[in-house]
């Protein structure tokens, strides 16, 4: 299942400048997802992170992971229309720089779920130019 940015906006509540997913390239709701995000060199954040040597802040990478997981989870009928809230971020590792102009690919899969509490954990990986750039687990509550 492929989705455009407009279709993504019909699933998750995020909007620019905080919408950090451009496309869904592949998805099986409740199982796994592959998304992309173009790192626009004109983003305001690069003025201060870092002048003369811009790099995507790690918190943006984590947010990309979370939003990809949000789409995966909110595409399930039981969570459709909910607001996804962070409960936890674990095992995050940054392995390679992500630079302005890069397009990253985010892979996420459902790792565990407590459906009775509407809480799920997804494991995610970010690839940049085909190389693993970051990994982590995000736990979300659908409210």
Provide structural commentary:
There is one protein chain. This protein has 143 residues and is α+β, with helices and mostly antiparallel strands. The chain has one domain (5-142): Roll (Thiol Ester Dehydrase, Chain A). It is built from 2 helices and 6 strands. The chain has a 6-stranded antiparallel beta sheet, with helices on one face. The model has no long low-confidence stretch (mean pLDDT 97).
Can you summarize this structure?
This protein is α+β, with helices and mostly antiparallel strands and 143 residues long. It is built from 2 helices and 6 strands, in the order H-E-E-H-E-E-E-E.
What is the secondary structure topology, with strand pairs?
Blueprint: H1 5-9, E1 23-28, E2 32-38, H2 58-74, E3 84-94, E4 103-114, E5 119-128, E6 131-142
Antiparallel strand pairs: 1-2, 2-4, 3-6, 4-5, 5-6
